[in-house]
Amino acid sequence: MAAGTLYTYAENWRAYKAQIAAQYSGARLKVASSPPAFTFGQTNRSPAFLNNFPLGKVPAYQGDDGFCLFESNAIAHYLSNDALRGSTPQASAQVLQWVSFADSEIIPPASAWVFPTLGIMQFNKQATEQAKEEVKRVLTVLNQHLNTRTFLVGERVSLADIAVACSLLWLYKQVLEPAFRQPYPNVNRWFVTCINQPQFKAILGEVKLCEKMAQFDAKKFAESQPKKEAPAKKEKGGKDAGKPQQQQEKKEKKKEEKKPAPAAEEMDECEAALASEPKTKDPFAHLPKSSFILDEFKRKYSNEDTLSVALPYFWENLDREGYSIWYGEYRFPDELAMTFMSCNLITGMFQRLDKLRKNAFASVILFGTNNASSISGIWVFRGQELAFPLSEDWQIDYESYNWRKLDVESEECKTMVKEYFAWEGEFKHVGKPFNQGKIFK
Amino acid sequence: MALRELSSLEKCLGLKKPNKYSTQGERKVPVLQNNNGPAVVGLVTIASSLVRDAKKTELLGNTAEQRAVVQQWLEYRVTRLDSCTKDEVKVILKELNHYLEDKVYLAGNSFTLADVLMYYGIHYIIMELAVQEKEKYLNVTRWFDHIQHYPGVRHHLPPVVVLRNRVYPSGQH
Ligand SMILES: N[C@@H](CCC(=O)N[C@@H](CS)C(=O)NCC(=O)O)C(=O)O
């Protein structure tokens, strides 16, 4: 049974094919899709990567035994079992037929239609209309085939279903609104069945079918323009982003003058996919590099004395521009009953904020006793804004707190940081004794 | 009939030890006599208890909704399908054909006991259909073919040939 690593950026439908195949076959597949294991535009340009995968494209697979493969269909084939590949010469040829059909008949018109609606490609009415017609033609072929069949090849799910369903994924999510898909009931039945198989669901999650055909997103397209060169020159883009607005704009203009706006077709779908979800990638990407190494402080805080080592280190090294300090107080103290429940409230919040750990540190304290308690904490965040609005996952708890930005130079801030980090002191503003503390790190 | 069906179901579920059944009454309702406990009576009740014995309760549905739809079709099987007259067969086929237009399985998106028992119960009807009728009830035929190919299902029943390419292209359903 194959076991290895799949390199890709997150949420890549090409990688899904291999991941779903592995769900069926039981192949042990690790996915390297985020730093430090994989950074799109960097890892896949490194000499070591190019040595194994000369195109530098993803998805790319490396087995634990060293076996390397590129091209998503080859990887999915390798990670399949015989049932998925088709167990007779006829069946396996039919599987290959549909896999190729997906690549050459579905993907080109699907991309031409969907990308402008994601705001990642310029809109061209004629091209979109032509793509719609081609999509109709493809759906008609599939609908006819699935009239008498449950799955594309044989009576079980095969790689053919995986490849074709994955290549229709964006269409069904973005543009195939009920009226448009209504003439293809067999395709709809088959698609819904596929995406609801547990092996698909494990990878795709809940797929929401399009309710209203998405149209060209001009605003998003305009916004996404500067990002276009980001993957190639990530570092530079990052630095630029930190510079004052005006200067940046000037630069942008210069670039535009130098070379004419790149043709929409130049942007390939991977960049497109990346640009479409910039926020989920790294919400702090726009910030300039900071001199304050939060991890180093966390190490000091965990391993050494707080008052004599960690706190002096904190104040000496804190980058006042790259970080901000906040006081957060739970808004509904009257609802806090038993202390163990209040503690769960805090740890639950920490869990939901898991992805924020790299960019934040906090000490949150429960004061008082059963039925007479309060919760408040000191938070150190990357950037000058509250981080919570940057990601949907982070908003669950944040509205239950009052947030106040502290003036880093003020005595109040110094005192609070000291008391909350050390879990001792007067806590004058609270008026209840310390009960227990939790550290977010 | 019901007894052979139950023994096929046992095999399909991978139950090693065959149970002994009897029937009761004029309509030959199957009865499973447990060693220690009251008798289990009726096809649906016995089939469901076999599924639980085999620890394959996903065949009774994974969600509350799917479980309810499974029960609905089990009931349909014994109350409607099993007692239907020759004339009613066409109505049932029409109903089913319409229902299966946008579904691969009877309940939810996975294979359940409802598919097995409906397959057992309708087999004799599909056997008798002419090619033209099979095309008329295309969705039923497609579902039937899928279920008869489902691993371990078709034990005591002969396979029914289903054509993939239509012979009567004009025979719209
Ligand atoms: N046909 C290939 C296409 C792979 C591909 O185009 N990968 C893009 C991402 S969608 C890529 O890695 N581009 C990186 C680059 O060109 O540097 C497959 O299916 O695997």
From TrEMBL, chain A:
The gene is eef1g. Keywords: Elongation factor, Protein biosynthesis. It holds the Pfam family GST_N. Residues 280-441 form the EF-1-gamma C-terminal domain. InterPro entries: EF-GSTs (IPR050802), EF1B_G_C (IPR001662), EF1B_G_C_sf (IPR036433), Glutathione-S-Trfase_C-like (IPR010987), Glutathione-S-Trfase_C_sf (IPR036282), Glutathione_S-Trfase (IPR040079), Glutathione_S-Trfase_N (IPR004045), GST_C (IPR004046). Residues 221-260 have a biased composition (Basic and acidic residues). Residues 88-216 form the GST C-terminal domain. The keyword Protein biosynthesis applies. Residues 2-87 form the GST N-terminal domain. It comes from Astyanax mexicanus. One of its GO terms (molecular function) is translation elongation factor activity. Probably plays a role in anchoring the complex to other cellular components. Residues 221-272 are annotated as: Disordered. This is Elongation factor 1-gamma. The lineage of its organism: Eukaryota, Metazoa, Chordata, Craniata, Vertebrata. EF-1 is composed of four subunits: alpha, beta, delta, and gamma. GO terms for cellular component: cytoplasm; nucleus.
From TrEMBL, chain B:
InterPro entries: AIMP3/p18_C, Arc1-like_N, EEF1E1, Glutathione-S-Trfase_C-like, Glutathione-S-Trfase_C_sf. Residues 49-170 form the GST C-terminal domain. GO terms for molecular function: translation elongation factor activity. One of its GO terms (cellular component) is nucleus. Pfam families: Arc1p_N_like. It comes from the Eukaryota. Keywords: Elongation factor, Protein biosynthesis. The keyword Protein biosynthesis applies. PROSITE patterns: GST_CTER. One of its GO terms (biological process) is positive regulation of DNA damage response, signal transduction by p53 class mediator. This is Eukaryotic translation elongation factor 1 epsilon-1. It comes from Astyanax mexicanus. The lineage of its organism: Eukaryota, Metazoa, Chordata, Craniata, Vertebrata.
